[in-house]
Amino acid sequence: MVRVAYMSKMYAPTLKELPAEAEIASHKLSLRAGLIRKSASGIYSFLPLGYRVIKKIEDIVRDEMDAIGCQEVLLPIVQPAELWRESGRWDDYGPELARFNDRHEREFCLGPTHEEIITDMVKGEIRSYRNLPFTLYQINMKFRDEVRPRFGLLRGREFNMKDAYSFHTTQESLQEHYDQQAAAYGRICERLGLDYRPVDADSGQIGGDVSREFMALADAGEAELVYCDCGYGATTESLGEDFDPSIEHSCPKCGAPLKLVRGIEVSQVFQLGTKYSKVMGLTYQDENGVDQFPFMGCYGVGVSRSMAAVIEQSHDDDGIIWPVSIAPYQVMIIALSSDDEAFNYADSLAQQLVEKGVEIVVDDRDERAGVKFADADLLGFPLQVIVGKRGFEAGEIEVKIRKTGEKHVVALDDATTEIKQLLDRL
Fold first, then answer.
1. Which of 17-26, 212-221, 315-324 has the lowest mean pLDDT?
2. How far apart are CA 341 and CA 13, in angstroms?
3. Closest Cα partner for 124 from 307, 282, 304?
């Protein structure tokens, strides 16, 4: 049930002074706006406003995964070492894999990814080709012991991620679902309001021969990529030591000059083939009763990283500019007058908008107007509704669009309808 939220009762501590470690806009603004707080190097707590954003991104991801027939599960973060030894990655993964022993000296790790767990989970359950294909996904925390955590949520050690795993009888079936996942990832980026490019990429420690990353364009991105308006794109890493980004190269598809930019990896799709099914003994029986290894795919979305990428692309000197789709609240009503009649109107307007499905926060704090306006811009909700004494007495309120700064004067009696119409156009 949607309810009106009140700033006077909200745990949303904003900051004026920033830690010196906050180097980029998304890190600075996530701290300043009270979205996150640092618990340890590369590890953050999500405060109420930040967690609302995370949940909205998760809902978009779930919507797109469910639409292509994926089924949600929840896998353990703590994983036994024997599964990683079985896959060969216990030694290959390197120091990013956080390892520990329990009280019985059994070895475990904190999962940076879940190929081993998911393969082991379905082993013995897939008995026939009739059980395939299927795709399982989860949204869960991951841990990678980064040597140099930086940039807040963009390069953390603990992070929120959606990972999906598909199982198929043929390469053609895998390719079909891989394409479905890639299309869904494009829709996720669009629903998040990201300016992005899909690019050919290196599979890294996940493995497999085919991989594609979805990169949010940003100067703060750690990856370098080239792309063409015809749709071609690749990370410079995937092109090998012989691509020189300092000179112009031609697009291998259409011959036009490639554009060199930086980007933030927000999601990636992989074709794993039989890499994990073979080494971990995952089989099914085909039509002739012969044991076969299923083809696998792996598909990841960085949920917390996507939040940072949105902020990196969508902010100004005053604060965050949230797209409506993932804003913590869609409208902030700023009550400037302590007059009971004006405040009661602001509260009544909030209730009416809530009944229309709009997410509302009312700034009812006993603060100066300047403080309220500054916090409204910092927090970045798409619409600001100002209920002031003079305007109210004249039968008007002011509505400001955060993204453009455009202001509308609205009659009190028309406010609910006009605010909803403005919001729907954003």
1. 17-26
2. 29
3. 282
pLDDT digits (tens, 9 = 90+) for 157-207: 999 999 999 999 999 999 999 999 999 999 999 999 999 999 987 655 555
Q: How many Cα neighbours within 13 Å face the side chain of 23? A: 11
Tell the CATH topology of 329-425: Rossmann fold (3.40.50)
Q: Report whether CATH 3.30.930.10 matches the domain 25-316.
A: yes
pTM, to two decimals:
0.94
- Helix residue ranges, H only, 111-209: 115-122, 171-191
What does the alpha-carbon distance between residue 124 and residue 286 come to, in Å, rounded to a whole number? 15
CA 371, CA 336: separation in Å to the nearest integer?
11
> Percentage of the chain with pLDDT > 90?
81
Q: Do domains 25-316 and 329-425 have the same CATH topology?
A: no
Strands 331-335 and 360-363: parallel
For residue 11, count other CB atoms closer than 10 A to its CB.
8
Q: Are 41 and 157 in contact (CB under 8 A)?
A: yes
Q: In 17-128, which residue ranges form alpha helices assigned H by DSSP? A: 25-32, 48-67, 81-87, 89-92, 115-122
Instruction: Kindly list the domain boundaries of the chain, sorted by start residue.
Output: 25-316, 329-425
* 10-35 tens-digit pLDDT: 999 999 887 788 889 999 999 999 99
